[in-house]
């Protein structure tokens, strides 16, 4: 079974702090994704990556950056956390081949005070 | 519309059937997916259907696909309290990404 892990289930940070969210997958998947989930807004794609050192902006990249130095690891970085970044963050991976299924981690609930 | 659409909420009694509906956007979508999210957890893939199928059954789950109307449904037979969750439908878009609906919260009353 595919396993996607995220470094923290719950995180509390202060406004202005730099925040790192880590995601690791163990299935040698090419593609990795970061979403945020907010009530009433569903899942929104922040960034994705098709390969090591590659990154592409999703629908809401502002205020975020990412890093993919190794195939199995995809990090989401909040350079200067703000209260409107309080959310549930979900990481996913996929092989990039049919049926294009994405496999999700358990999520990190981030609160920015 | 441009969005994958789902109703927000569904309430059923334990033992009844649940039907969750979804309208998707791209008639050429090759696969359509149903994910389940339990409280405080990530999304888990429930099932997917290939676009050349009209129906797929997997134990208590039945997926129906109406390509003409771009309508997808998920039927859960004999709904249990453990089925209480948010259910998302999704379709692929350019670059092998997925577009998700807003999710339907299923509440199962004992």
Task: Please describe what this structure looks like.
The complex is a heterodimer of chains A (113) and B (110). Chain A has 113 residues and is an all-beta fold. Chain A contains no helices and eleven strands. In chain A, strands 2, 4, 5, 6, 9, 10 and 11 form a seven-stranded mixed beta sheet that branches. A four-stranded antiparallel beta sheet of chain A has the order 1-3-8-7, with no helix packed on it. The model of chain A has no long low-confidence stretch (mean pLDDT 94). With 110 residues, chain B is mainly beta. Helices cover 0% and strands 57% of the residues of chain B. Chain B has no helices and eleven strands. Chain B has strands at 5-6, 9-13, 18-23, 31-37, 43-50, 55-58, 61-66, 71-76, 85-93, 97-100, 104-109. In chain B, the strands form two sheets. In chain B, strands 2, 4, 5, 9, 10 and 11 form a six-stranded mixed beta sheet that branches. A five-stranded antiparallel beta sheet of chain B has the order 1-3-8-7-6, with no helix packed on it.
Q: Taking all residues together, what is the mean pLDDT of chain A?
A: 94
Which descriptor suits the 3D outline of chain A? globular
* Biggest chain contact: A-B, 26 and 22 residues
Shape type of chain B: globular
Give the SSE order of chain A as H and E letters: EEEEEEEEEEE
Overall mean confidence score, pLDDT of chain B: 92
Order of helices and strands of chain B: EEEEEEEEEEE
As an assembly, this protein is: heterodimer
Q: Into which percentage range does the β-strand content of chain A fall?
A: over 45%
Poorly predicted regions of chain B are none
Low-pLDDT stretches of chain A: none
* Count of strand segments of chain A: 11
Number of helices of chain B: 0
């Amino acid at each position: 079974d595919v396993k996607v892990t995220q470094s923290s289930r719950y995180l509390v940070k202060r406004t202005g702090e730099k925040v790192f969210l880590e995601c690791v997958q163990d299935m040698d998947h090419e593609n990795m994704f970061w979403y945020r989930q907010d009530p009433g807004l569903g899942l929104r794609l922040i960034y994705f990556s098709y390969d090591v050192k590659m990154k592409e902006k999703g629908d809401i990249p502002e205020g975020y950056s990412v890093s993919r130095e190794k195939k199995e690891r995809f990090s989401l970085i909040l350079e200067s956390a703000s209260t409107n970044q309080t959310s549930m963050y979900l990481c996913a991976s996929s092989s990039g081949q049919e049926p294009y299924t994405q496999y999700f981690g358990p999520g990190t609930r981030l609160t920015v005070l | 519309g441009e969005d994958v659409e789902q109703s927000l909420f569904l309430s059923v009694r334990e033992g009844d059937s649940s039907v969750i509906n979804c309208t998707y956007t791209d008639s050429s979508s090759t696969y359509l997916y149903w994910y389940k999210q339990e409280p405080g957890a990530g999304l888990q893939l429930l099932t997917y259907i290939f676009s050349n199928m009209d129906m797929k059954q997997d134990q208590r789950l039945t997926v129906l696909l109406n390509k003409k109307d771009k309508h997808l449904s998920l039927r859960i037979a004999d709904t249990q309290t453990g089925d209480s969750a948010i259910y998302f439908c999704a379709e692929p878009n350019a670059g092998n990404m997925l577009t998700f609906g807003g999710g339907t919260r299923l509440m199962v009353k004992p």
